[in-house]
Amino acid sequence: MFYSLYPSGKKLSGLNGLMIGCVYGKDSPAIAIAGTGVFETFTVTDIAGNLLGKQQELTAELGLNHILKYERIDLNTGSITGSEMYDLIWANGTIHHIRRLEGLFSEINESLAPDGIFCMKEYVGPSYLQFTDKQLEICNSLLRIIPDDLKKDCFGQVKTKVSRPSVEEVVREDPSEAVRSGEILSIAESSLRILESRSCGGTILHPLLSGIAGNFEKNDTTRKMLRVLIDLEEILLEDGEIEENYLFMIASKKTAG
To answer: Facing residues of 18 across strands?
Structure first.
C-alpha cells in the first residue's frame, strides 16, 4: 500500500489527503484510501460538480462523509494551494486535461508535507492524441492480423485502420483532451523528486483497441489473444521501441537547493 513509502517512524493516523480528479463508484480510489483508516480528512477535487455531488451521496451511504470532502475546482483557473499541507496528493487521470501545468505542479510540491507523497496515474503521451508514426505503423500491422469478428465496433463496422485524429477533431470533441500531455512528465520531473515511475501500457493498445476492446473479453480464446497483445506491448516498451503513454508515478517534495 502507498503508506509503505512514508519514512519509518511517521505516525500513520490523522493524515490529510487530496485527490485531484473524482471517480464515481464504491470502488473508487478515494473510497479505498478513506477506508484504510489512516486519514482524518481526504478532499476530492474535480471540475464536474454533478459528478462530485453523486459521489458525495454515495460516500454518505457508506458512512465515510466524516473523512471524505468534495470540492469543485477548475485547475486551469483555480489553485490547490492554501493553508492545508497534505500527507498524500493523488492525481487520477485529470492532469492531462490541464493547460496550467507549471503552476499546478508547483502547487503540488508546495502543498506536500515535508514527508508527503504524490502519486499520479496519467496519460503522458503525445499532446492532442497525435500518435507517432511508429505507433501507427505497429498498430496497423497488428490490426491486419486480428480476425474480422474481433474488429467490429458497436455498430457492426469492421475497423480497418488506426489513424491519427486531427488536432481540430480532438479540440472539437473536448478542448481540454491531452492539451499538454506530452509535457507532463518533464514538468513533473522538474517540480518534484521522482521516487518511482512505471509504465501502465496503452501506447499500442489504446489506439489499436479503441472501439473494439470489448470483443477481447468474450471467452478464454479472445482473452488469450489480448494477453499476447499486452505482452508484445510490454516487450516493445522494455526494448525502447516505443515510449510509455500511460504511467504511474510516485514522487516526494523537492526542497530548495
So the answer is: 43, 89
